[in-house]
Amino acid sequence: MAEFDLTKRVMPYLDRHLSFPLLVHLSETNLFAVRDVQIAQYELAKGTNMPDYAANLFSQIYPDQDVPQEFEQKRQNTLLTHQRLQDEAQAVLDVIENPDVAQALRQDKEQNLQYLKDNYNLTLDQITALYHFGQFQYSYGNYSGAADYLYHFRVLSTDNDLNTSAQWGKLASDILSGKWDAALQELDTLRESIDSRSLPGPALNQLHSRTWLLHWSLFVYFNHEQGRTLLLETFLSPVYLNTIQTSCPWILRYLAAAAVLGRAPPAGASPRVRNALREVIKVVQMEEYQYQDPITAFLKELYVEFDFEAAQRELSRAEHVLGDDFFLGEFSADFLDNARYLISEAYCRTHQKIDIRDLSERLNLSPDEGEKWIVNLIRESRMGADAKIDLDKNVIEIFRPAVPVYQTVIDKTRGLHLRTSGLGTAISRMGVQGGGEAPAVAVR
Amino acid sequence: MSRFFRQADDSDSSESSDSEDELMSSDDEAPIARPAPAAKTGMDQFLAGGSSDSDSSDSESSDDDGPDSDDDEPQQAVRIMSAQEKRLVEMEATGKVMENALKINDWVAISNEFDKLVRMIQRQHNVSEPIPPFYVKTLVSLENSVNNALAKEKEAKQEKDSKKTSKVLNATNAKALTAMKQKLKKSVKEYETDVNKYNTDPEAFEKEYSDLVAQSAPVAPTDKAGPRPVHTDDKGEPDDDGFKSVGKGGKAMQFSSEVILKNLQAVQEARGKKNTDRAEQIRILEKLLEVAVTAYQRIRVLLALVSSRFDYNSSVATHMPIELWLSAQREVDQLVAIVAAHPAYSIQEITEDYDELKERIPEDPEEKGGIVRIRGSIISFVDRLDDEFTKSLQNIDPHGTEYIDRLKDEKVLYCTISRAQAFYENTNQDEPLGRVIMRRLEHIYSKPDAVVQALEAAVEVSDIKPNMRLASQGTTSGLIHSLCVYLYKSGNSLLRTRAMLSHIYHHALHNDFHTARDMLLMSHLQESIHSADVATQILYNRTVVQLGLCAFRCGLIKEAQATLQDIFTTQRVKELLAQGVHQQRFQVLSPEQEKAEKQRQLPFHMHINTELLEAAFLVSSMLIEIPLLASIDSDELKRKAISKPFRRLLDFADRQVFTGPPESTRDHIMQASKALQDGEWEQCRDLIQSIKIWSLMPEAAAVKEMLAKRIQEQGLRTYLFTYAPHYSTLSLSLLSRTFSLPLRTVTSIVSKMIWSEELSASLDQSGGVVVFHRIELSRAQQLAQTIADKVGAMVEQNEKALDVKMGGTGGWGDRADGNKGEKRGEQTQERRGRGDRTRGARGGARGRGARFAQGLGNEMSSRPG
Lengths: 444, 865
Prior knowledge:
Chain A: Keywords: Cytoplasm, Initiation factor, Protein biosynthesis. By secondary structure, chain A is an all-alpha fold. Chain A contains 24 helices and three strands.
């Protein structure tokens, strides 16, 4: 199953610190040799300001060797830097935490700066110290502290680049300290700023930012309660779907999984979420040549090939893959449940008479369990009225009356008034703009 | 040197026409005259005077004759003259007047005097006396001066444009000058032999004359021969060297470097003139090249030589003779080699003015940075070579052996291009490097691997090699990738576009459909291609078509059909691919248009076989259209066709009363379609597989197999659609037997049809049968459905109309720009998902390719990058 492990693909798009949990998880799954994973962890930790952690890992990997001196030295350095930065930041913090100041601060950043400068002699450079201290704290693992400082910095600073950077830092800190609500909020603002930015640089930058955001957001979406729905909402929006297709097709696994998990969306979900499965299948099919794993293959077999046996096979493989996946591990059972439901739904819709035993087999259940499952299914689903179990022959019979003609007519005409009014607004908008350009004429 | 040429001329002129000969002599006169004063005045003076070229040549011509006349005068004063002598003196007097007139540039006077002289000579003839050498001498020197004057005038005219200081001849004078030229030409022709004799050896000639005269009058002025030999070279050319070819060392001694440069200049001045004999020029330059010693000279001569080779053929329509092309190619190679070996010489298109006649060396302090910059352009030579190659291929009958022979030259051309690339790589000249890489790419992008390998092997053995080679890149795709990447990075957008298309084409050729498609979509080319130049549009069309073929080979029938659809609906496939001139029925092309069209045509070996293309398109249309036709039961819907060209052919085939055995590809496909409609998939398969044109497709066997499988599947679908009303249940195993498909595949296909609600039926697992539920609609119900459809269509039409109004490419809120438009964008996209037809029509407005792009999903609308 190691070939379906995505850690290697995901990690390049993560921060060093965000990768630690992934590696820790890997060392638990036994997909790879523990020692290899530990070495990887050590290599990662070497680059951070966490010399103790690194030294610890080192002694784990090479128990018979002395811990190199450099860690001790680095530790000293770290402490010194910490002291220095803290002093710098403290000055600012003292001012800000003053209740008078907190009251005097307004929405307008420029004005705030001026105010601070006039009254407390606080310059932009000093405020930047907040940023540096926050960054430093992050680098030695004090995530919640980092989040605080970065937050303060962002409130005050006007520097766009640093602000963006602080946003990323805050997101990472929130993720690592497990504040999912805050992280979700942060994610949304970050997403907004990426999407709205009319970048000065090439469009490629935007693509990169989006790719990063997609990867980071996995942490949030698979830990927040409503994350899956939000994930579908975000990932299926055209720009992010394009990003997935262009630069990171492996994200499709999470998209597919989320679609299956969100089989029965909560009431009031957007149409995008409701039709998620259909969309995802389309994309999976389209990107088949680029990316394939048991989860996407399951959807493909079920909805494109209608090969229930193959779908079943893929499902059992998917179960393993899910169990080993860092993000999806917890949802393995849930996924299985939903996937079964999808299989049986598809099965029932195409069949008239179904052998319960056969179906149970398809669902990896014992006949008794299967029967229970099916009864539940019939009760829950909308075909409740049409399906009957014939216990004598041990089959389900489904009678599906043809759709009445008036119903199809209603369906066909349903959206018309909406579309027409859409046309109307478009026309009036055009009137305001003063007409469009002439149509392009195809020459060749 | 000049002597040598003259000899060469003479031997030639016996065959060639007289006028040609005359031209040569007039051309050659200038170099003849010059060595003399140079020798007299000495090198230094000449060099110093070199800066003001016109002046020095002016003084030369006067110097030439000045001493003669001075010597003559006193002698004449004392002598008692015979009648014959008197005539001679008379002649000389006229000569003197002419010389004076020459000094003040009075061509009217010269013309008059010359007429007089000619009359006198006529008289001389009448008394059957030999023509005095004086006359011949005058002719020669006059001709010289005329040429000089003409050249000067031309120069003066050019100068006049820039600064108004020069002395341009006034109108009458200029007219006289031209008249003079004509007259001279006539008389030189008349006395051709004499002039030649004189030129070969003036002394001998005069002696001959004096001997003749001595027979009649012993007092003939033999002394004249004495002071005269101004024209004979001081260097003492041996009299008899005429036909002997002289070794290189001897030449170098004979002709100092100035002579080469001067000759070169003379040739260059004659270039482009009406009466210049181009073949002769080339010959002169070839000789010059043999003589040239220094790198500077060789570069200069090569530059001139290659351009004059390209000049040789002035007509645009015909191509350059192949031998000429080959030697030009060799010379470009040579040029590149020289320049590459001597980094101190650089050839640039724009340089500062420099003295054409001066030998320049890098050590000279005048040269900036120790680099001699020479005006010229290697890249334009390479371009021209390539263009001429293409032109010759266009003109040669592609079915003859000549074409194949010519095609073999591509190898050397490819080498030349690669060498040029290597040269530019080493000298870091980005602009020409981009161009030359594009040329290289164009030679290999559409070729199969084996051919590219052969071409590359030839490059590998040459002495100058570019960095990007097959050997260093491993595969052809790697090579093309590296070439393209260079072009993507370079700033030139045209080259970038072309490189992109070539790259896509290459991917498509190698059956890498997905990569090719993604690249095409991400390049957003289909939006801007309408504004590109024709050649790029042709390349675009070729690329799209190749992509379609690639999809077909990969078994992606739907994609193939959608891609090829656009080009076939235009019914101008050949024209759009530049593989034939389209015959327009109601409109006659102007000759210019026709010519331009002809020039655009691709050489035959690059053609994409249109018959194969059509077969691929029609077969994929068949596989999509036939099940669709079967699934539709009302006539109303039948009018909607996915592939109009296919539907048209099918209708036509339907109308025929008798059908014979299939002959053409189309016949095969039409009969196969009918068989498929009737559910006889085996017959259909046999018909399709017996199409001969498949053999042109690589991996033909695999493609046929793939087609057979598709036919089975689509046959099953068609069968179900067509015969469902007649069954209430149908056994799956029977279906599986009938269509020779595994039971699983049959179940899968049927399930798919049920799931997508194409077929109102369901499976009975225990019985292994399909159960059909069919409901008959009453008339009113049918009508109600129809009206619902129509209303829907109307709204769609309205939307479409609005789309067009809002700008064909944009659409109203198609592109989600930022947050504002996003909501609307989503709506549109949803709607699009609902109505497939909208997409097609919308794409139609955008032109070819756009539809294809949309058919593949809406990612094209906003893929970043």
